[in-house]
């Protein structure tokens, strides 16, 4: 037997998908899933964005659409529109500094960027710095690519705010030329983002320390409903001439979760060599992509391209983004209001000051477990709640459940 147990032990089960199976098997009628990182409407159902539904219709109405392979770098009309959405209008110098590549959604973009860095950085390879805490797939994706990770201070459990001084200190202390992973908006899991002036200071520190920025942008437009506001950090870094990768996902903001629609953008430092650097990096990304997936998937990119490039659809899409972000903001306010009404011990203001899909509730692991076993309310052991799982029918039930468990274990 080639794959003896000593060679291939069991891998630990995935936390999210493990909880999802447990939730599905749970027979309790009141059960509430606050694990899922996917939008739900007020009936608790998955939501196809009306603009995306229209784009799907347009795509299927066009009988001439063929199902051929895309180029290795993906659907260009999609990549261009995706870059424009993130980086805005640029002059020709800025145009020459960047290259965009279609990937298997946001995860695939982080992966492709990580594999590239791992392959081409000189030994000893720079460390990858991740926020503490961060999206729980960051560590596996970067380490799987052969990179070593460390954390920089980000969230203060005491104030439930950004530990900005700690973050800047750690970025300054990191060896020159480190890779710093930054989340562009709606930080997962904390829902706590730097302010615009803090982003400006972070950019300064990145520049003076010669660090490489690796942005992960999974929630543009989903965080505040405003595409520009949610991409401020990325555009500011671009204007400041900082070299970077940007992993961009259309899972949440277009609701294309299962279609695996995303991009990796490379941005070079300004200067006479920018254009040739971009071309060399693009050639190597092509070669990596070809060996890993050959060419990226067609369908999601076509649908996204229709929405992003059509004047009416792209305008209507803003309405869809508002629908999602406003419903989530409403649920945050209702949950906080109900907890305050009940007099639940502690301070619950952070539920509304945090933004995006997730609330970092501050519940401890035992309280989270009691929520699941006694109340059938599921969230991650870290206390991260997907606010998208709340709706007008279950928000009071969830507040009652939280009220019951707080301080009991
Ligand atoms: N990055 C962050 C911070 C995320 O929260 C997610 C999804 O939850 C991703 C990347 C991956 O997104 P995708 O589903 O597009 O691979």
From TrEMBL:
Domain Aminotransferase class I/classII large residues, every copy: 31-402
A biological-process GO annotation: aspartate biosynthetic process
Protein name: aspartate transaminase
Enzyme class: transferase
Pfam family, one: Aminotran_1_2
EC number: 2.6.1.1
Phylogenetic placement of the source organism: Eukaryota, Fungi, Dikarya, Ascomycota, Pezizomycotina
Family: Belongs to the class-I pyridoxal-phosphate-dependent aminotransferase family.
Cellular component terms (Gene Ontology): cytosol
Gene Ontology terms for molecular function: L-aspartate:2-oxoglutarate aminotransferase activity; pyridoxal phosphate binding
Record's keyword annotation contains Transmembrane: no
Needed co-factor(s): pyridoxal 5'-phosphate
Keywords per UniProt: Aminotransferase, Pyridoxal phosphate, Transferase
Quaternary structure, from the entry: Homodimer.
